[in-house]
Amino acid sequence: MWVSLAPTGYCSVGFRLRMYRLKNLKKALAKGSRPVRIHLARVLTVFASLALIANVRGDSADKVTKVEEFHLEGVAIWECQCPAYGCPCQKNGLPSEAMCHASDFSHIERGHYGNIKLDGLNLVLVGNLVDAMADRLFATLYLDERATHEQSDALFQIVQYMNTLANQPPVPFRRVKGVPIAFYESGDRTEYRVDIANTLHEKALLRRGKSGNPLFTMPAMDLWSNTVHNVDNVEFKYGDAEAGESWDYSGHYANLKYFSVSKQMYVQEKMLGQHGDNSGKWTPKQLEIIRQQGLEKKKKRSLLRVINQSVHSAGHQLFNKVSAGLLQPWGLVPIRRLPWQRSRFCREQS
Q1: Peptide bond preceding 7 in cis form (omega within 30 of 0)
Q2: Nearest-angstrom CA–CA distance, 311 and 255
Q3: CA nearest to 106, candidates 134, 128, 125
Q4: CB 123 within 8 Å of CB 155
Q5: What pLDDT, on a 0 to 100 scale, did the predictor assign at position 2?
Q6: Over the stretch 41-93, which tens digit does the pLDDT of each residue have?
Q7: Helix or strand or coil: residue 265?
Q8: Partners of 74 in the β-ladder
Q9: In whole angstroms, how far apart are CA 237 and each of 81, 90, 250?
Q10: Phi, psi angles (nearest 5°) of residue 223
Q11: What is each CA distance from 53 to 49, 50, 203, in whole angstroms?
């Protein structure tokens, strides 16, 4: 049995056909035939199922709206099986390998969920996090074992909230585990490591230019930020017997971001990930966000830094070769320093 939502005064062929079936159903019900009773039972079952689904969806939507206000600042690292410096998922595309075995790590330097402080805590989501086939998506959420029960629940609520709104379709969590998660950041903020004993090992190197700014910056679809810095994926090894998954995608794609994210950014739909369609190009809404937040300018500045750094480095190497050829006959050699530093000369030690 169908219910038509045709406007008043409008009767399509389909609408008239449905009304004809409805009249015949009423006549058959009056006679009390067994096939019709069976059909009616099936119809009622379908309606009951639809009502149940609607109720579940309503509960999910209600839970999303009831999430407490949160604001988080910190460092996040994404590593996956896509090619190095070329992950199409970041730009509204589908994975280069059909599925995307990935890790989404976050270190919260400062943050809160309602009145619950989350400073210094870590979490990481690992699994097939991007896929055109929703039935293949899965993830294990690892939460910092140092977190209290209230903090763990807060972290779960935040990740579930962002996952529901920014990932389409959302990634289902198979398991949630409390584990010790070690995070390391070098003093110059160029080397980063994540470690879960016997489970996850990550190492990423961030290239910086002469000014100290990251070299490879671009707009991206991400749970934590609209801007990421592509980095060198030195190590990405994962193995969890309970999850039944293991891989080694060292040398593949990775990015890093210094994020500041809040519930209000999601409520106001300011995240690029909320407007994706996996088309391989930015949607009109995403382009609007990129313009409003000046994200394309950041990308251009990053590209200019890369070009300037490359030209400077090439010039320095040429200078070293020429100067070495001229000075060595006189017992002098250039001291090779960093590309943006001047070369000095010293007499060769005897």
Answers
A1: no
A2: 24
A3: 125
A4: yes
A5: 33
A6: 444 443 443 343 334 333 444 455 589 999 999 999 999 999 999 899 999 99
A7: helix
A8: 108, 259
A9: 11, 21, 7
A10: -65, -30
A11: 6, 5, 43
Q: Which tokens hold the place of 99? A: 């599925």
Q: Whole-model pTM?
A: 0.70
SS3 call for 287: helix
Give all strands of the β-sheet with 245-248 in edge-to-edge order: 182-185, 191-196, 200-205, 232-240, 245-248
- Residue 340: the pLDDT is 44
Would you state the pLDDT for residue 30? Answer: 54
Q: In sequence order, which residues have a C-beta less than 8 Å from that of residue 42 and are 6 or more positions away?
A: none
What is the per-residue pLDDT for 238?
Answer: 98
What are the tokens at 288? 């609007």
C-alpha closest to that of 182 among 199, 165, 167: 199
Name the burial class of residue 89, with classes exposed (0-12), middle (13-18) and buried (19+) by CB atoms within 10 angstroms of its CB: buried
The domain spans of the chain are 13-64, 68-293, 310-347
The CB density around residue 4, as the number of other CB atoms within 10 Å, is 15
Contact 112, 155 (CB under 8 A): no
Collect the ranges in the chain with pLDDT lower than 70.
1-65, 298-350
Tally of CB atoms within 10 A around 143: 22
Report the SS3 class of residue 9: coil
